[in-house]
Specification:
Shape: globular
Radius of gyration: 22 Å
Distance between the termini: 65 Å
Structural class: alpha+beta
Strand content: 5-15%
Number of domains: 3
Number of strands: 13
Length: 441
C-alpha cells in the first residue's frame, strides 16, 4: 500500500469533492447573505473555506494535483489584500511540505533502485522525511565517503497518478480561477502535462542538476548541490541547509528579504546564460538563503533547455519599449509571433498595455509588492479598461510559453518577498541584446 493514492477512482473521488464543495459553499454563502450578513464578509469566508479545502486535497494527493497547487501558490501575491490573509498559511504549506510515505515503502524503493545492499552506500540514513515534492520526498543521509547528502525517492505509481491528476484537474481549475480572477489556467495545465515524462525521469533530472552545478561551481552568490549518484527513481545529491524563501516571506528580516530577492532575480536570468538552462519551478520551496548570503537552489526536474540562452529578441523588444518606440515595438512583436499578422492592433495602445510590465526598469531600483501585482492583474483583466481588449489581441508563441510561466511565477515570488531590488541593472547585464536607454531619456 503506497502513501500516494494511485487508483483512478480514489483520486478522482477526492478531486471531485473540490467543485462540489465549492458549489456547497456558494449555496451556504447565499443563505448567509439572505440572513443579513454583508456580501463582502460572506465572500471572504466562502473564498477562505474554498482555499483551505483546495490546497488540503491537492497536498494530500501529491502527484499532479500537488504540482498544480504549487504552480498556483506562487500567484498568492495577486489576490486582493482583504482576501489574501486567510489564504497565505494554507498556500505556503504546499510550497515545502506534504504527508510522508511509509518507511517500509521508502526502503523498498531504495532496495529496488540501489540493490539489496543499499544501506552499505550510507553511513547513516534518516528514515524521517526531511522535505517533500510533488512526485517524491527527500531524506537526509550521510554517504559512505562522509558527505552529507539528500536522497530523493520517487513515489511508486507517481507516473500514473500524475497523468490521472492532470486529466481530472480541469474541475479544480474553475475553483482556482475564483481566487485569481482572469488567470488563464489552460496553458499552465497543458505545459505541466507536456513536461510530465521529463519530471518522472530522475536520471535526466540528475544530468540537468549536474549541468547547473558545474556552471555555478564555487560561485560566491549561488550554491547548487551536485549529484552523487542517480537511478530512474532515486537521486542522491549533496545536502544544503539554509532558510527556504517561504520562511523569508513569512518572517524574514528586511535584510534577508533584500538579499534573497536580489539573488533570486539574478539566478532566473543568469541560469540560461551560464548553464543554458532556465530553472522552471520557481516556487519558494526550491530556494534557500544560506547563512553566508548565497542563494541555494534545489529541485531541477522542471527546466527549459536554452543552449543559446534566452532569446535575444527579448532584450531588443524590451529596449525598444523602454525607449518609447511604439511602431518599432509592434513590428518586433509581430515578427516574434506575439501579434499575428491578421490581427489589427494600435501601436500606442499596445505599448500602453505593456507599460506596467516594463515600469520596474524605469528606475534604478524597484519594490516588487503585492499592491503592484494586484494593479497588474487589474490592468489586464478588467473588462472596463481599454487595455483589456488590447490584451485579447496578443498571442503567446509556443517557444515562449515556459519562459512566460517562469517569469510570471518569479514576479509573483518577488512580490511575496516584497523587497526593493536593482532590477534594471540585473536585466541590463544578463538579458541578451538588452541595451536599456539612460534614465530620463
Amino acid at each position: 500500500m503506497t502513501d500516494l493514492p494511485r487508483r483512478a477512482v480514489t483520486r478522482t473521488a477526492k478531486l471531485a469533492t473540490l467543485p462540489l464543495g465549492f458549489a456547497g459553499r456558494t449555496a451556504w454563502g447565499l443563505g448567509k447573505r439572505v440572513g443579513g450578513l454583508p456580501a463582502e464578509v460572506v465572500a471572504a469566508e466562502v473564498q477562505a473555506r474554498t482555499a483551505e479545502q483546495l490546497f488540503r486535497v491537492l497536498g494530500e494527493l501529491k502527484g499532479g494535483a500537488m504540482k498544480f497547487g504549487q504552480a498556483m501558490s506562487i500567484f498568492e501575491a495577486g489576490i486582493p489584500e482583504e482576501l489574501a490573509g486567510p489564504y497565505r498559511a494554507t498556500l505556503t504549506k504546499l510550497q515545502d511540505a506534504a504527508p510522508p510515505m511509509p518507511t517500509s515503502l521508502v526502503h523498498r524503493v531504495l532496495r529496488d533502485e540501489l540493490g539489496t545492499g543499499w544501506r552499505r552506500s550510507f553511513r547513516e540514513f534518516d528514515d524521517r522525511q526531511a522535505a517533500a515534492a510533488s512526485i517524491g520526498q527527500v531524506h537526509r543521509a550521510t554517504w559512505k565517503d562522509g558527505r552529507e547528502v539528500a536522497v530523493k525517492v520517487q513515489y511508486p505509481g507517481a507516473g500514473k497518478a500524475l497523468l490521472s491528476d492532470l486529466n481530472q484537474i480541469s474541475g479544480v481549475a474553475r475553483v482556482a480561477a475564483g481566487w485569481i480572477p482572469g488567470l488563464d489556467l489552460g496553458p499552465i495545465l497543458a505545459e505541466l502535462k507536456g513536461r510530465m515524462s521529463e519530471e518522472l525521469d530522475y536520471e535526466l533530472e540528475a544530468a540537468t542538476q549536474h549541468q547547473f552545478a558545474q556552471a555555478f561551481a564555487d560561485d560566491e552568490q549561488f550554491l547548487l548541490p551536485d549529484i552523487v549518484t542517480a537511478t530512474p527513481h532515486v537521486i542522491v545529491s549533496e545536502w544544503i541547509d539554509g532558510r527556504p524563501l517561504s520562511r523569508i516571506i513569512s518572517s524574514g528580516t528586511d535584510e534577508e528579504r533584500q538579499q534573497s530577492a536580489l539573488r533570486y532575480l539574478e539566478f532566473l536570468l543568469a541560469g540560461p546564460q551560464r548553464a543554458g538552462l532556465l530553472h522552471a519551478d520557481p516556487h519558494p520551496g526550491n530556494f534557500r538563503l544560506m547563512d553566508d548570503g548565497r542563494l541555494g537552489v534545489i529541485d531541477f526536474g522542471a527546466v527549459n533547455r536554452l543552449p543559446q540562452g534566452l532569446p535575444p529578441e527579448m532584450g531588443r523588444l524590451l529596449t525598444i519599449g523602454l525607449s518609447g518606440g511604439a511602431e518599432e515595438l509592434l513590428q518586433g512583436l509581430r515578427a516574434e509571433g506575439f501579434v499575428k499578422a491578421s490581427i489589427d492592433v494600435d501601436a500606442e495602445a499596445a505599448l500602453d498595455y505593456l507599460e506596467p510590465f516594463i515600469a520596474p526598469l524605469r528606475t534604478d531600483t524597484f519594490r516588487f509588492s503585492r499592491a503592484w501585482l494586484r494593479g497588474i492583474f487589474q490592468h489586464v483583466n478588467d473588462p472596463r479598461r481599454p487595455q483589456f481588449s488590447v490584451g485579447l489581441r496578443f498571442n503567446l508563441p509556443p517557444e515562449y510559453l515556459l519562459i512566460h510561466r517562469v517569469w510570471l511565477g518569479g514576479i509573483g515570488v518577488l512580490c511575496q518577498i516584497g523587497a526593493e531590488v536593482p532590477a534594471r541593472s540585473i536585466v541590463d547585464h544578463w538579458l541578451p541584446e538588452a541595451d536599456l536607454p539612460p534614465l530620463g531619456d
